[in-house]
Amino acid sequence: MTRIALFVVTMFASAAFAANCPVQMKAIDEALPKAKLDATKTAEVKKLRADGERLHKEGKHTESMDALGKAKGILGIK
Ligand SMILES: [Cu+2]
After folding, report:
1. Distance, CA 68 to ligand 1 centroid (Å)?
2. What is the 3-state secondary structure (H, E, C) of 13-29?
3. Which residue has the higher pLDDT, 66 or 19?
4. DSSP classification of residue 34
5. Global confidence as pTM
6. What is the mean pLDDT of residues 62-66?
7. If you measure from the C-alpha of residue 3 to the centroid of ligand 1, how many angstroms do you get, rounded to a whole number?
8. DSSP secondary structure string, 3-70?
9. Predicted confidence band at 2 (pLDDT cuts at 50, 70, 90)?
10. How far is the CA of 54 from the centre of ligand 1 (A)?
11. Is the pLDDT assigned to residue 55 strictly greater than 90?
12. How far is CA 50 from the centre of its chain?
């Protein structure tokens, strides 16, 4: 029973993450042109954004959200 419940919770969690990654990517895409970052930071955000998209496509939503979260951190958005 516990295992099934855990599985169901995991499924819901990954579905939520799956829907959330593109939202994060969009937020980054919108914030990046407006952000006043130096070249190094901009490159870092772009790299994390690209990593996030790749991980999302690979189904690694937790890792994707992690990378996208870091990019948002640099941009100073939530
Ligand atoms: Cu995802």
Report:
1. 10
2. HHHHHHHHHHHHHHHHH
3. 66
4. T
5. 0.77
6. 95
7. 24
8. HHHHHHHHHHHHHHHHHHHHHHHHHHHHHTTT----HHHHHHHHHHHHHHHHHHHTT-HHHHHHHHHH
9. confident
10. 9
11. yes
12. 10
